[in-house]
Amino acid sequence: MAQSELTLESLAARVVDLTTTLTTALQERNSPQPSFSEDAPELLSPAPEVQGPRLQLVETLTKMLHLATGPTEYLIQQCLLPNADGLILDFLNRFDIWHLVPLKGSSSYAEIAAAIQLPEVTVRRFLKQAFTMFFFLEEAPGSDRIVHSAASAYVARDAARTAFIGHCMEDVRPAAAVGVDALQKFYVGHKTHSEEEEHCPQYLASDRGKVRGKAYWEFAESYEEPGRPKGYRAERFALAMKALSQTQLTAQVLEKFDWESLGNATVVDVGGSTGHISLLLAKAHPKLKLIVQDFPDVESSFNEVITTTEYASRISFNAYNFFEPQTLTADAYLFKSIFHDWSDKYVVQILRNLLPVLKSGVHIIIFDNIIPPDHDEQGKPVVPLSTRRLLGAVDLQMFVNHNSKERKASDWTEVVKRADSRFDLKGFYTVVGSPMGIIDIVFNA
């Protein structure tokens, strides 16, 4: 049915069918049902029988909400709500409201206000808006005491999640605000999109009245402000990536590659940060030896994460900049969420830097977003609306921070072959419910 033919009644009927399918699939797996309570499941089952109807249900509900809202109110919402939502998330995160309300407990407005030294009337004003976003709620309607909702409890349980919010609100949002300025400055009058990193909004963004004027990674490493150590943004970004991986069915996607086929192999996790992906591989595949490569100043954080685990003997750290020629010989090289930070010219350079150590049969495994086509041959959407919106948002975030992009399968094929014709793309592998996938490349000398 064409979108213009959809009605509230047809969508409502679809909602009933999908809800029944989803709840039945959860019951058959003895999986908990979604709820608003703070002990609600953080993720539903990764099984395709759950994720398929879940994503279809979200899309159907979104379309139904859009119809019920109407164009007039929709425009007003789009102009007002994104700014307000960002403001509230920034407030909750910078003042760490997440931890001022105890899990399985409550705090009063007055207690929260005293803890963060703001007027109680201001705290009430901001929290009332947070409630409309499903963050926190009053213990009872009209109560002075605040308790956690499912969403706020989820954030409070893991510092990586507050790090991700901080990255998006404090690092990305100021750059996004000057996104159109960057288009006007660098792109008007040009036929093609620049591949230069400095032609992105990040360079025009400012903090505390000072224009950044440098690449995101350099900015994050060098930025300092009163009360926070130099480089805290870089450390926060590394932690934030852990939170992001929790939402992308990372383990399921990772297993789309046949790691057991490598045997007793050495795998280099290029740009692997603190080693959270290598840790997953070490747990699942005892024959693998893993080497995490990243900048030297990441090693201390890596040690904090890895050395206390039972897998420390199989996971080591090697200081490396992937813009330099690779020096380690291995059976496979893994790039998790690396290339979407770079435009094609830099991806080509990174891949070519592997050539000095590559032998025939070595795998280059790219673990990154794979943008599906918009429609199939019959004109039907390939992925649900919520997934398309999320992928589009990540793509724009890559433009804002790095002047890079997310890639379709054809884009990946083009950039890999541009690097070297001896790179043989063996396949693209995805799972339902995740925007990410595995791209398996074998080097043929």
Automatic annotation (TrEMBL):
<protein>
    <submittedName>
        <fullName>O-methyltransferase bik3</fullName>
    </submittedName>
</protein>
<dbReference type="InterPro" id="IPR016461">
    <property type="entry name" value="COMT-like"/>
</dbReference>
<keyword id="KW-0489">Methyltransferase</keyword>
<dbReference type="GO" id="GO:0032259">
    <property type="term" value="P:methylation"/>
</dbReference>
<feature type="domain" description="O-methyltransferase C-terminal">
    <location>
        <begin position="241"/>
        <end position="419"/>
    </location>
</feature>
<dbReference type="Pfam" id="PF00891">
    <property type="entry name" value="Methyltransf_2"/>
</dbReference>
<keyword id="KW-0808">Transferase</keyword>
<dbReference type="InterPro" id="IPR001077">
    <property type="entry name" value="COMT_C"/>
</dbReference>
<dbReference type="GO" id="GO:0008171">
    <property type="term" value="F:O-methyltransferase activity"/>
</dbReference>
<keyword id="KW-0949">S-adenosyl-L-methionine</keyword>
<dbReference type="InterPro" id="IPR029063">
    <property type="entry name" value="SAM-dependent_MTases_sf"/>
</dbReference>
<dbReference type="InterPro" id="IPR036390">
    <property type="entry name" value="WH_DNA-bd_sf"/>
</dbReference>
